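Before relying on records like the one below, remember that each one covers exactly one chain. Contacts with other chains, cofactors or solvent are not represented anywhere in the record.
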Amino acid sequence: MVNLSRGVTHLLPFVVMAAAVAPLFSNAVSQILLGVAILLLLLQWQKAAMPPVALPLILFLGGTLLAVALSEEPRVGLPQVKKFYVFAMLPVLYTAIRSAEQVRTIYFGWVLLATGSAGWAFVQFSRKWSDTVAARQDFYLAYVGSRVTGFMSHWMTFSAEQMIVGLMLTSLLIFGAFRTRRFLWLGALCIIGASIGVAWTRSVWLGTIAGVCYLIAAWRPGLLLLVPPLLAVIWFIAPASLQERVTSLYKPHGTSDSNEHRRITARTGVEMVRAHPWFGLGPEMPGRQFARYLPSDVTRPLPSGFYGHLHNLYLQYAAERGIPVLLVFLWLIVRVIRDFVIGARKIVVDDAFRRAALHGSVAAIIGLLVEGLFEHNLGDSEILTLFLVIVASGYVLLRKDEAAHA
């Protein structure tokens, strides 16, 4: 029995690290490994620990259950209840991962898989370009609705994952977490950054810029003055199609771009929140009842696009679960960012990895928050898992336990 317990204790961190890395190539594998980790914890009779954000997280999940119960169609919201399983990553990782070295292994795994995913995305891009040229089609119109996905099934998931990993890697580089072979990690960053570019996901571009600005402000604030001219240089050397995608932010190609589609979903979401400010319509209900709350002055037929959610993280939570649940979510986010920023400032310069990882975590969260203005990104299980890994890993690094300083 003692040998079994020792074996479980030895195996558990490796299973959790694998589960934390797996979303970059397979959400199913990640969730299976998470289940194995939970089973190993039960075999150990070990009580799961919770980081300091336990209260807002419990209130968020409780508010979700209440919104489901009060919904006109509670059964429709059950997928969001099932997603509570994904949230188990937070206590499981916080319990099983005990050292900075284990956190480092997770992040290095992210970088390797993101680099591989980027490489596959370049192959996809080359094929799409060749097919478009052969068919004599307009590349922009052909590509915008069928972009590269890397190892993922959708370009939004791929882009957000690349952003998270890219920002973390940027932080590790500029804060000196790598003492050897920096050129290899810099090369990986260039590959990941290029993949973000070819994915054409504008919300991720904005999130990446915001995250990088935070990192520069934390590292060398004076260098923020170089950001505008650097963006100008990137603009002038970028291919015409990429420039065209940037200008589509204010000059869309009719309904091919999602500008009007997102404007309509945002207006409809506001109407939902006005009608149900306290408990929302219920999880998954905004898409189901979209037509009921569509403003009367919106011209039909609607622009092409997905109307199953509101393409805005904050409106989605408010419309589904009510304004109080949205405020609880924001409380959780503010608490995490505050703890990580304060913690990073207290860490001695010699402990470069912990300092860099905490700043990288804040940058990644900022990137997700900015992207969330234009997409329901945490509704994606892969992105939610990476977010929870960031939060749990950050609090592991803040532990007073000497093991966290390894």
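Residues 2-255+310-405 form one domain.
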